[in-house]
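Apologies for my clumsy wording, but can you show me some protein sequence, whichever is easiest, together with the matching structure tokens, please?
=====
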Amino acid sequence: MRLTVAQLINLPVLARARPEVVSGENLENRDVRWVHTSEIYEISSLLQGGEALLTTGLGLVALSPEARRNYIADLAKVGVAAVLLELGRTFPEAPSDLIDEAKRFGLPLILLHGVVPFIEVTEVAHALLLVGELNDLRLSTAVTDRLLHSLGEGAGLVGLTGLVSEIAGCPASLYAVDAGLIAGAPQADGFEADGFEANGFQAEEAQPEATHRAQSVRVAVVTGGVVWGELVLDAPESPRLRTIAESAVQVLRAEAARSNVTPMSRDQAGAELLRDIVTGRYAGAAELTTRALGAGLTVHHGHKIIALCLPPRSARTVANTVMIAAREAARQVLGASLVAEVDGDVLVAAVVRPSDLRAVVARFADAVERELRSTSGGGVMVSAGHPVDDVPALVSAFPSARETARLAMRLTPAARVVLAVDFALYQLLTSLVDDESLERFVNDQLGPLLTHDARTGAGLVMTLDAYLAAGLSKTRTADALGIRRQTLYSRLERISRLLGGLDLDNREQRTALDLALVSWRLRVSAAVGA
């Protein structure tokens, strides 16, 4: 367990001495590595830092105020966690020079107003510290074992980083000096290759380093005595996360030493994961989640994952060109994403807020088209499946996105952004368009109009479809069809006569006609596609 100065002085064995804090702040954040007792004036040279020093002040009683100040200064420079001075045996009250110097250095100085056997304090404290060390050892062993097992299965740096994120319960990222971000998602205070400096790892953003350090756990990856990179856990520092990070770095270091890492390794791992999701080449849901973490795909509160599909616009469309453009656009608009080409479609998985879905997909489409113009490409269509809660659910989300794209290419080929929710009814009916019952339904509802159009080419079915799409507005319908309102009135009268009356205020009749028209559009598009 972690033992802080605040916890130490609240232990029953010390609490009965009525401890009084006369110097030092944030004692709950000052860790105690060991508890030491000494009356030696020159004790600082024998300490390593992190000790809570118990003393009666016997070695200070005959010293000058300046010497006592030096005593405190030396302890502060070594990094002692706190000094606990027992009053009564040597000093009836604490010398002011001790208090003043402790305050100057910010060293916690705690006065004990009651006599307490120091041996009891050390026994209790050391027992707690040793239990904590044992727990740390167990945690370190468990982390190392899991990572080594994953390494043996060929996880690589990306897979290992994903597993670290899963174990730690927070996003993990791996940076390399020569290649920038290798695995995981960029941290809010993260850095790329030129964010490294000779004196350590520092972020490029103009924020205080202390703020960065407080918000993340960072451990250098050193191979052959040279800094190779850094593992970052995106969570406030804690003993548990520090143990996990330091244990993980040992395995990452071994893999880094033998790997020839390139800046594209994370993209390649993400593409491979996406192809495995679509083709079903994975062992289980847990594997997908871990690999996605390594590729940087993390679902935050209030967000969901979307599956996007960019179908080829024409036979001249080069899928690889679109994929390169989509990957760059995803970096600009979507953040950490998975991008891959599968059977001619470019597929993307990303994290968004559901309320922003349509706007985000539109910005992504704009960015893709900008990239394609710069590479002499053409326009794109982007379809989005229904947002899902986690990575395993993408298994069903991608078929929806791809089917939506196919329908949109048939029904609205000029569209740039289409969502599965927009085509839900079409998707429901696609498996039924050749069903005899549905065919009878369409003929029952629209038969006279279909027969009349086939004989005369009057376009009555198209007129009725436009009228319903315009919300029964005759003005908007005429504008959409490019005809005069008088012509529209004549067509609507003919439609009503052929159908034996047209009461579109009747919800049931209007719904039946609308459904029949949806089915008719699917039939027409299927015939054209054939």
